Amino acid sequence: MKVNIAGFNIDKELIDKLNSPLATPELISASYARISRSNKSIEELRKEAMKELEKARKTNTNIIFAMGHSSVAEHSVFNIDLIGVSRALTELIQRSRIASFTEKSQRYVTFSKDYVVPAEFANRPKLKQPYKKLMDELFAEYELSFNALNELYKKQKPELKTRERECLAKEDARYILPLSTKTQMGMTINARSLENLLRRLSKSPLKEAAELKELLYTKVSAIAPSLIRYIDNDDYTGKVDLEKVGFTGFLQQELPWVKELDLENKVRVINLPANADDTILASIIYQQGELNWNETKETVAHLPRIIKQQLWNQVFKDLKPWHKVPRAFETVDFSFELTMSESCWAQFKRHRYCTVLRKAGSSLAAKIPPAIKAINRENIWTKLNNKIIRMGSALPPKLAYLNPYFRTNASIVTVFVKMNLREIYHFVRLRSDENAQWEIRELSQLMAAQVKKNAPQAASFLCGKSEMNR
Ligand SMILES: Cc1cc2nc3c(=O)[nH]c(=O)nc-3n(C[C@H](O)[C@H](O)[C@H](O)COP(=O)(O)OP(=O)(O)OC[C@H]3O[C@@H](n4cnc5c(N)ncnc54)[C@H](O)[C@@H]3O)c2cc1C
């Protein structure tokens, strides 16, 4: 056996010192692409690629684009700083499943007044002025609420260190920040995922998305021109136009329905698996036994309860908070409809292995943290939240797509989510943990309670990391 480190990501400043056109990840992609049809060793293939950059690029183009083996582009990975993008745009960026993100946290960092003014407002002072005025008001309220919360906690929680107290104050004050707030994030993404992201950005009508697409493509294609091609809006959306078919029933019902949902239920169960415990147990046994799938399930269904209990004890034996439960837990899916604030959604959407469908809509409902009521700023917050939502709804129809900037972290989001039990385990470990933010912890605990009712055995260790440690 032999292991070579063929490459790894290092800072661009060091790469620039090489001052070589060969400093491109395309060579790794090309040499790996050639593995499947060559008798040569990988070392030789890599040497060959180094000798003939243009030929290597041609290999990539042929294999990725002509033959459609896009997985070859996955061997080229980029680390990209994204600075000054709006929180609204992160919605599009972080939809990439096969990519890694670390974003500046509004829980731990104080945000100074820095927000995106949509380029669409450049020659529209009548829209731009009130927008800027309102954004300034929101940032001013953020600062006032932060100071008031900080003072409140000085009295209520004198045991906290300054930094802990300030973080607690930030955690809730940030709910009034608008989604136009600028943020920064580190993104690690392979060329294949990046191509998907570029295409997604090109389908967005936002000028901010177009600017990001242009910057990303220009910078990446200068280093690696052979990996990314289909980046333009090809007009495929997969959406439906209800008005075109003369049926707008869904649209008319939306507003009152969303309002009712916002106030009543945070977690609505949509779909639960039948016999989840038996399905998972059968899935584990299936891998070890001689019987086929149906026979295994049938046999498990008829096992005495005491035997099943013993088997479950074995499944969870020695399970630690950092362990994953077996893949067999992926055989059962749970679906929920969830209502949460934009702030909570910003955390929820970071979980990549689930299906999430976000509803459009501009409900006036807002999630105002209880602490804001304690500092008597609830009415001011409600007014500001209503003002921003109404301003967004009053945009001229051709600019209605700017709506994502006209929301605060307190604005309400409704999503449909489907997760398998393995991902639910992971989600609940992180989000029911004592260090998790309070709103997502609440949501996680409600979801976990529903799952436990449905799958008492399989979900018997479903809890936050901190609880498991205890
Ligand atoms: C208390 C707390 C504080 C946080 N603070 C911040 C913060 O300040 N800034 C910030 O940006 N984020 C923060 N996060 C979010 C966090 O970094 C994760 O993005 C988020 O919790 C999603 O979880 P995940 O990445 O483990 O897994 P998911 O996306 O849910 O994926 C599930 C599992 O799949 C595997 N997986 C998925 N993708 C990959 C991959 N590319 N490579 C290898 N394995 C993969 C992993 O095993 C992972 O556990 C915080 C989270 C918590 C709980």
TrEMBL record:
Q: Which InterPro entries match?
A: Thymidylate_synthase_ThyX, Thymidylate_synthase_ThyX_sf
**Cross-referenced SUPFAM superfamilies, in alphabetical order?**
Thymidylate synthase-complementing protein Thy1 (SSF69796)
Q: Which domain of life is it from?
A: Bacteria
> Might you give the EC number(s) for this enzyme?
2.1.1.148
Q: Which residues form a coiled coil?
A: 35-62
Is Coiled coil among this UniProt entry's keywords? yes
Presence of the UniProt keyword Transferase in the record: yes
Organism this protein belongs to: Cloacimonas acidaminovorans (strain Evry)
* Name of this chain's protein: FAD-dependent thymidylate synthase
Listed PROSITE patterns: THYX
Give one GO molecular function term. thymidylate synthase activity
Q: Which UniProt keywords apply?
A: Coiled coil, Methyltransferase, Transferase
Name one process (GO BP) from the record.
Answer: methylation
